[in-house]
Amino acid sequence: MTAPFPTHKQEEWRYADLDALKPVWERFAQPVTMTVAAGEELEEVWLPAGEDVQLRRVQLALGKGASARIFALNTAPVYGRVELEVSLAQGADFELYGANIGTGLSTNEFVTTVKHVGEGGRSRQVIRSVLNGKAVGSYLGKVEVARGAQQTDAEQSVKAMLLDRGATANCKPELEIFADDVKCAHGATVGELDAMQLFYAESRGLDPASARALLLEGFVTGLWDSATSGDAISEAARDALRRVV
Amino acid sequence: MLNIDNLHATVANKPILNGVSLHVPAGEVHAIMGPNGSGKSTLAYVLAGRPGYEVSEGSVTFSPRHCEERSDEAIQPATSETGLPRFARNDGGRLDLLGMEPHERAAAGLFLGFQYPVEIPGVSMLQFLRESLNSQRRARGEGDLSGAEFIKLAREQAGLLGMDAEMLKRPVNVGFSGGEKKRAEMVQMGIMSPRFAVLDETDSGLDIDALKSVGAGINRIMRAPDKGVLLITHYQRLLDYVEPDRVHVLNAGRIVRSGGPELAKELEREGYAEAAA
Fold it and tell me: What are the residue ranges spanned by the domains of chain B?
């Protein structure tokens, strides 16, 4: 049985492009389930596909002391959505490094719920968006710390660059904490390229367009520094930037 | 080689340069000294073309190919006149510097050593410098350096300045100490091998050993009959290692005094107020 089609009234679908989603909903109605057993490690690199509408809906369960690192590039021409619901048992470690790169009328978004269920879990979510035209890039991230999940260490860092006045970045980090000995940090900035960095690069001989491209590339590809094999996703991000800038 | 004539400039509508005139012939190093707020850094930024630094009067011409007739130019076709077709110019290889974009000035052979080198997270020093150099080379009609050629050049220059080559893999200036940043500026200069360098307080933040090696670097890279340097500094110290041909005192946006190397020593002894009076 297919799950009911979402509406904008549901917080987690608030910025979604439901018109684009409608024709393909059946394919994505059911999230994919992934499990990392106690003490095991998982590293995933999620590259963009060719379709206009691209969704990944994943439920990820991390066992005791398990760790998962996900590197994701969201750059669908119409609607891209990476949706993650993660649960962390005691001492589990979760990292998400994601980028939205969009132009035109596209909507790309990360929607996450990270549930710290056991003690001493650690989560890191780092999202960077580069948006041009009338593109929308969003991050909706909820961190839930259950009663008893003491010594949780959760961090969300979200930054967006808007290259056009018509582009929109939405950012909504949310915390729901039921334990008293935890560390939960979040930071968000929306900005333009730094004028001094641009001048520095131009003074070394880069023309303005190349200087901007290089600075944007640095802004995004810094995300994949810790990937075991980050070459493919870095290359895909560079391609996407060339298309967008 | 560099001819500054009656240069007036404003920053945020405030006049900072009030008629600077200065001529640096090829083969010479000129020092500009002056108190805080006299306009030294503004002059450097105006020469490099920083946005927001508005020239209200005067001109700057740059003749990077000053020694064109010299015989050794013949074996370097890449530096022939045809390499600079798209720049604003008047006659005989003289470029109207102020009519050029910052990157065009760099391609023409101008280098600014920043007083506060800028950090660029996420972009490695190697990538930054390779793309910059190749971009300059393309503008001059020269071919790109390959990755291997570039890395060899970068390692060599880092080595000559006593910088650990591993630092070239790190993001541009990120996590570098003040002294390391200044040293890295000189490594960049060595890689770019410019015709003319404007060095804005390259000596500040350096300890004695670093000062010595940076001084030696400036001499090695820039002391040549077809190159020139404008050395902006507060102190006499660097001038012990890079001996200037001329010393100018900038005060309230004008050159108020010029002299030989002995002027720097006099300034150090007597202070700007006395010497510039």
Answer: 2-275
User: Sign of torsion, CA A218 A224 A230 A234?
Assistant: negative
Taking only the tens of pLDDT, chain B with its 277 residues reads 999 999 999 999 999 999 999 999 999 999 999 988 999 999 999 999 999 999 999 999 999 875 444 434 333 334 444 444 444 444 458 899 999 999 999 999 999 999 999 999 889 999 999 999 999 999 999 999 999 999 999 999 999 999 999 999 999 999 899 899 999 999 999 999 999 999 999 998 898 888 999 999 999 999 999 999 999 998 888 999 999 999 999 999 999 999 999 999 888 888 887 766 5
Q: Which of A203, A215, A220 sits opposite B106 (nearest CB)?
A: A203
Partner residues linked to A62 by β-bridges? A36, A88
Query: Cβ of B112 and A202 within 8 Å?
Result: no
B254-259/A41-46 β-pairing: unpaired
Q: What one-character DSSP code corresponds to residue A2?
A: P
Question: Least CA distance to B104: which residue of chain A?
Answer: A205
Q: What residue segments make up the domains of chain A, in order of their start?
A: 11-192
Distance from CA of B216 to the nearest CA of A (A): 22
Q: Which residues of B touch A218 (CB under 8 A)?
A: 120-123, 171
* Strand spans (E) along B25-160: 29-33, 53-62, 95-96, 110-113, 120-124
Q: The CATH number of B2-275 is which of 1.10.357.30, 3.30.70.260, 2.30.30.240, 3.40.50.300?
A: 3.40.50.300
Give CA–CA dist B207/B219, Å, rounded: 18
**Residue B73 near residue B82 (C-beta atoms within 8 A):** no
Q: What does R_g of chain A's alpha carbons equal in angstroms?
A: 18
Candidates A195, A205, A218; nearest CB to B120: A218
Q: Which of B22, B70, B34 is nearest to B224 (CA)?
A: B70
Report the candidate in B17, B220, B194 with the shortest Cα–Cα distance to residue B105.
B194
